[in-house]
């Protein structure tokens, strides 16, 4: 065991600003030492372990449930069934308007199961093993029903209906139309028709699964929910009304979370089951989701078909508009859906200047796991779609995909740019990023590389994937889904205080899962108070009882650098003002403008010997306040709510700003295909990002890399594939292959900074990434197949066998595209 | 001789623990639940993710594919044993310097694999590093910074 | 992820192990555990008792005979095969073992466990079938050897019967071998594999296309003859989420040719 450290911790020499530097992370030490606290690490004396008995059928009536044999086993503390849940709770609130609004969604299946893996009964026992053993003694009788697993057939006359209350499998539909489609298609020289494009089902499989340890305080009727849910505000809104309790009775506590990527937002059904059991059994209840359970039941990313797409284009490659039917496969329940039905509209035109757009959006239920947000939520699907249109148009018309992009990209001098549906792209320089990317990949040398690959019997292809990472939602977009919803705007909270001994303590409302919030928050604070990073103590994780959160608090949707950090800035500036007020009074009436921060305290700028350390400030306010002026109203405990500037959109026209910031990523991929097997490698890869001002460049780059790796895994291997009975064929990491170390291609990254004019720090949220890896690899594969069947890539999932099929049967396996002269 | 419970003696990071365990208990559950050493993690149920990796009698193994009873009489090293008091190991420090962790969930297993690699091969090539870490899944970093960190620690 | 109750013993000798296995129909040998423990975690199979072979010296060791024959103890791990200087007499063994999964699996997984599992996607059954290995099996009724061609009987089924143990694998001398596979990610599970040995004539064994390795002896070592042999085998491989039957059949032909090239030193 080696013991030498390489270098001492970053020395606290006075810097211009901490913001913009890649300072080491505060989170790292405990994580490196194995001293992080993840939810399964939390233990309580006498706790019971839960095991959920789950449905083996994709669709079935539940005829009977008998838990008696399970409950007879010594050490089994109790059980919970859907019948109990239905009497103790009300159905979860539905975001959707009719028909989705009619769904009756409970913590456990009631009367029917609608997907393989749906939780039916919960068993709690003294040990994990015993809970598992006892669950095998639960007897459930099912009457299987036919299942529907293909969204394209979910509305057929003979399709089995999942929810009788909804009268069919349509959950939500809406038409989005802007500009003048007829005029655009009349003006076009060519119309490119694409029968079908398919964005497949997968998610980000965070290494830590969902979990909770729930304690019930019988005396005050309050639950403490130790969990790794990444959006406790949403969970509370869903759980409180269902459980018929006030939201303040639900205390959410998180510390370290092993990845979220959106997949830890909709665990509320299981959390309700845990709460009911903790109360019923009078003991803490612990739940850790199995990997298999996660794959079978949790937060699949939206699967979406784009049908009958038509693109209006001029001969010179100018894109005028498009229309399509977007058919979204939501799975068996709407848990955050149908918000996906509007969220894509944050990036309606993609990165392009076309003005005439129509999307007929339909969302249907199928006998598969419920979809919930997954990294890039709903925008990624749409951006993949726009990139496919660009590449297919270029492919069909014999145009250079680089030229088509440059011709149609929104230009830097057009920013801020209002899209056809009233969203405002804040800033960006797409053409410049593309040039940087092409230069880094040595685009000029691609033809030579192609020849060289061919001499080895390989097909080489290059592809561009450009994408947007929109961040900081305006939740009013939910009203486009359901005008009766009372949600709009957004918020985030931070509290910064001086403790009695002058410790600077920061409390966030967020639930970080590796994004380094403790670190970047401390950078913002230290810049304002002119102290060291060590002096800033940022509390780890989230606790509702810190009262430093608001309705939308959480870590999702690429927003922390805007919402969280602006809240931190606001709270720190409030604190700074109060410190100066206090010091001014202590110094005998010195105005705040004459004071400055330095060396862990505040002093008179002109005569620095007049110095009050933070410790003194904290001590005075907290314990020594006699004799202070009557009108001095400072607490040194400052809570700030950041509210982005949003309006409610025009619901009729579906027009208005839905997101505050737009980070950009442009990727270029080079693939080499072995035509004999369809096997392919990514032999070169470049990722360029722009997220405005970067608070910590190393953290930003880490997010870009992580998003890239996930996108590459998704396009090459990862898929939640079902058979026609609704059995998931990839329920674990054995069959659902995620990238491992040897799978990683060489990577070059680059970045530019286009500050956002709409945020106080010039930052933009980033982190989700927008799936550029999927877009670029699809484009590269299509490029490699040029002249070798010319198949069009029409599916976002391209494992080896599909590539081989595209080579063997380009007409059947490749997309069906036709070009009509207008 | 065949029994469903056994008394075992396992040395972990230099401390010897004697416990009565069911034969069916996995080593990872013994380490986490019985001994409260929660640094090693569980990320899957098919032995694919490596979050549970520990070093057993000098060999890197996945502790979710071993029974606790199989470790009777053995010496195990986990992430809790890497630092020397407050001083991080060279490898741990290198992970910090190179931003080789984000959520930190894969990190203990990754550190054990990298530790085993550098012991067997003090100056690995990039391919050898990848091979050495192949059994550890990370979903946050894309691995590139982890390769950098291990390379830097080997110099 | 949680096993059913199970009995456990860790005998110190081969004889003891065989006795324990013979005494209980529901007892199973525990070798490296890299498959069996996972099966038990999934509760897809739950033996009454596990007889841990980990401390039985007689099952370890690699011996290189004067005639170039290798005798490999069944409990030899993949890592031991990769690191063994004796095993370098037949380099393909270490080369293929080095591709199996990852370091952690290779440190525990054994050659005996790999072939006794007889999972169609395992690397070693087609390899040993091509090499013409011989398996030594010992039980209450004594010791016998079984050729690879008679060893693999079906999915998860081999010639090792109840109360018996595979003790040794004998590999004949030779160096002209090849192995080619398309896997789910690098060093991942095989989608189709092909092993080849050139020793006068060419012997091929295709994995993942049937319950057991399909052994072929093409008329010659030419590409055409190899493809014809695969064609004439009328393979009917399974379809699953990773490959259609058609794709597997196609890969079999391609990989057989590649393995054959390797075996002739011209990859």
Characterize the structure shown.
The complex is a heterotrimer of chains A (822), B (155) and C (267). Chain A is an alpha+beta fold and 822 residues long. In chain A, the strands form 7 sheets. Chain A has an 8-stranded mixed β-sheet with strand order 3-5-1-12-9-10-11-22. In chain A, strands 7-15-14-13-8-30 form a 6-stranded mixed β-sheet. Chain A is globular and about 85 Å long. Chain A starts with 27 loop residues before the first helix and ends with a strand. Chain B is elongated and about 50 Å long. In chain B, 32% of the residues lie in helices and 17% in strands. Chain B is an alpha+beta fold. In chain C, strand 6 (134-139) and strand 7 (142-147) form a beta hairpin. In chain C, helix 9 (223-232) runs antiparallel to helix 10 (245-263). Chain C is globular. The N and C termini of chain C lie far apart (42 Å). Chains in contact: A-B, A-C, B-C. Chains A and B meet through helix 1 and helix 18 of A and helix 1, helix 2, helix 3, helix 4 and helix 5 of B.
């Amino acid at each position: 065991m080696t013991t030498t450290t390489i270098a001492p911790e970053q020395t606290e020499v006075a810097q211009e600003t901490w913001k913009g530097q890649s300072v080491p992370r505060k989170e790292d030490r405990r994580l490196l030492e194995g001293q992080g606290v993840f939810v399964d690490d939390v233990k309580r004396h006498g706790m019971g372990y839960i095991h959920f008995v789950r449905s083996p059928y994709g669709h079935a009536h539940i005829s009977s449930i008998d838990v008696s044999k399970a409950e007879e086993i010594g050490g089994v503390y109790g059980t919970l069934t859907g019948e109990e849940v239905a009497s103790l709770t009300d159905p979860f609130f539905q975001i959707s308007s009719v028909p989705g609004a009619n769904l009756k969604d409970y913590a456990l299946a009631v009367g029917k199961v609608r997907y393989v893996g749906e939780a039916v009964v919960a068993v709690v026992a003294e040990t994990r093993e015993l809970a598992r053993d006892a669950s095998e003694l639960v007897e459930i009788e099912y009457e299987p029903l036919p299942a529907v697993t293909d969204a394209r057939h979910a509305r057929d006359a003979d399709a089995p209906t999942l929810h009788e209350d909804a009268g069919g499998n349509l959950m939500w539909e809406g038409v989005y139309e802007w500009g003048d489609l007829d005029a655009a298609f009349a003006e076009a020289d060519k119309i490119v028709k694409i029968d079908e494009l398919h964005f497949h089902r997968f998610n980000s499989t965070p290494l830590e699964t969902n979990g909770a340890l729930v304690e019930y305080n019988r005396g005050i009727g309050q639950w403490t929910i130790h969990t790794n849910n990444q959006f406790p505000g949403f969970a509370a809104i869903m759980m409180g009304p269902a459980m018929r309790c006030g939201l303040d009775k639900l205390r959410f506590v998180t510390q370290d979370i092993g990845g979220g990527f959106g997949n830890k937002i909709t665990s509320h059904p299981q959390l309700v089951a845990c709460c009911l059991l903790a109360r019923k059994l009078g003991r803490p209840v612990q739940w850790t989701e199995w990997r298999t359970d996660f794959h079978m039941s949790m937060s699949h990313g939206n699967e979406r078909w784009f049908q009958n797409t038509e693109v209006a284009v001029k001969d010179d490659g100018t894109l005028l508009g498009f229309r399509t039917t977007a058919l979204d496969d939501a799975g068996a329940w709407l848990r955050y859906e149908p918000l996906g039905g509007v969220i894509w509209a944050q990036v309606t035109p993609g990165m392009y200047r076309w003005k005439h757009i129509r999307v007929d959006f339909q969302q249907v239920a199928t006998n598969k796991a419920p979809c919930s947000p997954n990294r890039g939520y709903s925008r990624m699907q749409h951006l993949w779609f726009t990139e496919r249109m660009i590449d297919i148009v270029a492919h069909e018309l014999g145009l250079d995909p680089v030229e088509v992009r440059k011709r149609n990209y929104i230009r830097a001098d057009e920013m801020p740019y209002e899209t056809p549906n009233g969203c405002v792209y804040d800033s960006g320089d797409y053409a410049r990023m593309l040039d940087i990317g092409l230069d880094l990949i040595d685009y000029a040398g691609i033809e030579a590389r192609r020849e060289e690959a061919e001499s080895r019997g390989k097909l080489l292809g290059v592809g561009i994937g450009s994408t947007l990472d929109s961040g900081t939602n305006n939740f009013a977009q939910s009203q486009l889904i359901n005008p009766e919803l009372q949600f709009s705007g957004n918020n985030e909270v931070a509290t910064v205080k001086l403790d009695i001994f002058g410790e600077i303590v920061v409390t966030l409302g967020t639930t970080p899962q590796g994004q380094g919030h403790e670190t970047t928050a401390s950078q913002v604070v230290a810049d304002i108070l002119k102290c060291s990073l060590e002096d800033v103590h940022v509390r780890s994780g989230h606790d509702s009882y810190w009262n430093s959160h608001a309705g939308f608090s959480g870590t999702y949707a690429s927003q922390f650098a805007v919402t969280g950090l602006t809240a931190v800035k606001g709270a720190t500036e409030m604190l700074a003002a109060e410190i100066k007020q206090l010091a001014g009074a202590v110094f005998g009436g010195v105005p705040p403008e004459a004071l400055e921060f330095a060396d862990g305290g505040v002093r008179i700028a002109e005569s620095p010997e007049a110095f009050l350390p933070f410790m003194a400030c904290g001590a005075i306010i907290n314990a020594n306040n006699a004799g202070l002026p009557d009108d001095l109203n400072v607490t040194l405990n400052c809570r700030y709510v950041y509210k982005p500037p949003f309006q409610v959109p025009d619901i009729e026209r579906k027009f208005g700003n839905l997101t505050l910031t737009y980070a950009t990523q442009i990727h270029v991929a080079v693939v080499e295909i072995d035509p004999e097997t369809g096997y392919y490698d990514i032999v070169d890869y470049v990722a360029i990002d722009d997220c405005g001002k970067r608070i910590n460049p190393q953290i930003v780059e880490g997010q870009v890399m992580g998003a890239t790796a996930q996108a590459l895994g998704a396009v090459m291997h990862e898929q939640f594939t079902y058979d026609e009975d609704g059995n998931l064929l990839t329920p674990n990491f054995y069959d659902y292959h995620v990238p491992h170390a040897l799978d990683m291609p060489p990577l070059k990254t680059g970045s530019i900074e286009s500050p956002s004019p709409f945020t106080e720090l010039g930052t933009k949220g980033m982190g989700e990434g927008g799936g550029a890896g999927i877009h670029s690899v699809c484009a590269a594969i299509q490029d490699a197949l040029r002249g070798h069947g010319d198949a069009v890539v029409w599916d976002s999932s391209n494992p080896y066998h599909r590539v081989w099929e595209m080579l063997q049967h380009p007409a059947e396996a490749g997309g069906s595209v036709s070009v009509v002269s207008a | 001789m065949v029994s469903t419970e056994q008394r075992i003696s396992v040395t972990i990071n230099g401390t010897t623990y004697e416990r009565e365990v069911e034969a069916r208990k996995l080593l990872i559950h013994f380490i986490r639940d019985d001994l409260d050493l929660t640094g090693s993690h569980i990320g899957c149920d098919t032995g694919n993710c490596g979050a549970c990796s520990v070093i057993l009698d000098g060999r890197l193994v996945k502790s979710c594919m071993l029974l606790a009873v199989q470790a009777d009489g053995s010496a195990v090293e986990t992430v809790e044993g890497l630092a020397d008091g407050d001083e991080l190991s060279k490898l741990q420090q290198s992970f910090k310097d190179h931003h080789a962790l984000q959520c930190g969930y894969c990190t203990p297993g990754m550190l054990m694999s990298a530790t085993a690699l550098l012991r067997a091969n003090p100056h690995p090539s990039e391919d050898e590093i990848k091979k050495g870490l192949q059994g550890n899944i990370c979903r946050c970093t894309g691995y590139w910074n982890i390769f950098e960190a291990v390379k830097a620690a080997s110099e | 992820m949680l096993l059913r109750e199970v009995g456990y013993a860790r005998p110190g000798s081969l004889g003891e192990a065989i006795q324990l296995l013979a005494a209980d129909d529901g007892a199973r040998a525990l070798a490296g555990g890299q498959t069996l423990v996972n099966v038990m975690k999934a509760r897809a199979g739950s033996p009454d008792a596990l007889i841990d072979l980990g401390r039985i010296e007689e099952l370890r060791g690699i011996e290189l005979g004067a005639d170039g024959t290798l005798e490999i103890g069944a409990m030899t791990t993949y890592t031991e095969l990769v690191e063994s200087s004796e095993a370098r007499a037949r380099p393909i063994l270490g080369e293929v073992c080095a591709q199996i999964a990852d370091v952690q699996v290779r440190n525990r997984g054994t050659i005996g466990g790999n072939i006794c599992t007889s999972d169609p996607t395992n690397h070693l059954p087609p390899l040993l079938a091509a090499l013409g290995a011989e398996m030594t099996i010992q039980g209450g009724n004594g010791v016998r050897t079984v050729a690879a061609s008679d060893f693999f009987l079906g999915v998860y089924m081999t010639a090792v019967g109840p109360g018996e143990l595979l003790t040794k694998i004998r590999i004949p001398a030779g160096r002209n071998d090849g192995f080619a596979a398309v896997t789910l990610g690098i060093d991942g599970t095989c989608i189709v594999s092909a092993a080849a040995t050139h020793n006068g004539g060419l012997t091929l064994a295709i994995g993942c296309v049937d319950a057991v390795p399909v052994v072929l002896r093409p008329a010659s070592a030419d590409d055409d003859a190899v493809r014809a042999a695969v064609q004439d085998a009328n393979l009917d491989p399974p379809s699953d989420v990773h490959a259609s039957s058609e794709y597997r059949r196609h890969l079999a032909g391609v990989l057989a040719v590649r393995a054959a090239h390797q075996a002739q030193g011209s990859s």
